[in-house]
Amino acid sequence: MIQKTDLSRYNNTAFDTGKPFWYRTCWYFLSALLVQCAWNPSSALRVFLLRLFGARMGAGVVVKPSVHIKYPWRLTVGDHCWIGEKVWIDNLAPVTLGQHVCLSQEAYLLTGNHNYKSPAFDLITLPIVLEDGVWIGARAVVCPGVTVRSHAVLSVGSVAAKELEAYTIYSGNPAEPLRKRDINAC
Q1: Torsion over CA of 32, 63, 181 and 185, rounded to 10 degrees?
Q2: Measured between alpha carbons, how far is 6 from 114 in angstroms, rounded to an integer?
Q3: Residues of the chain with pLDDT under 50
């Protein structure tokens, strides 16, 4: 028997955001005014606000305008990372960026999804880990539970739905390995 989706049965009460409503509300408004906005040119102010709301941010991190980060208290960013314009980090679960990670424009890190097999469309959350030297290309998507190993590259518009091997360049939907990255160039 085929089960139909019944969104009236959806129950998200077991999901823990990690912070109380007032805290999330403060982040929502400050983020909209000073982080997600295109008019604020100050990466330092964005990094300060992310730290203020619990993100662990390394030295030399650059956060470009129009970045959307759902829950900074679930974000760890290593030294000298770049987070490009309009990057979306939808971190219902922890997101960890190693050192020297580059997230190009409009990259999307997605830690949540729904169980399509369940009529209630239950929420599923899994962490994302991007190891040192990873480059996520413009408009590429990293799906829940994915680890991208050291110095791997996910090319423009590609979708990583499973682990990506170290020093390998990936492309496509789903992302497939194209070739090895020159280790001496990294």
Answers
A1: 170
A2: 13
A3: none
Which pTM was predicted? 0.94
Distance CA 57, CA 46 (A): 11
Which residue blocks in the chain are alpha helix, DSSP H? 21-30, 43-52
Q: Quick check: 101 and 84 in contact, CB under 8 A? A: no
pLDDT score for 49: 97
Backbone angles phi, psi at 174, to 5 degrees: -75, 155
Give me the pLDDT at residue 1, please: 67
Sheet hosting strand 128-130, strand order edge to edge? 56-57, 75-77, 95-97, 128-130, 147-148
For the range 130-135, what are the long-range contacts, defined as Cβ-Cβ under 8 Å and sequence gap of 24 or more?
A: 130/95, 130/96, 130/97, 130/98, 130/101, 131/98, 131/166, 132/78, 132/98, 132/99, 132/100, 132/101, 133/98, 133/99, 133/100, 133/101, 133/186, 134/97, 134/98, 134/101, 134/102, 135/101, 135/102, 135/104
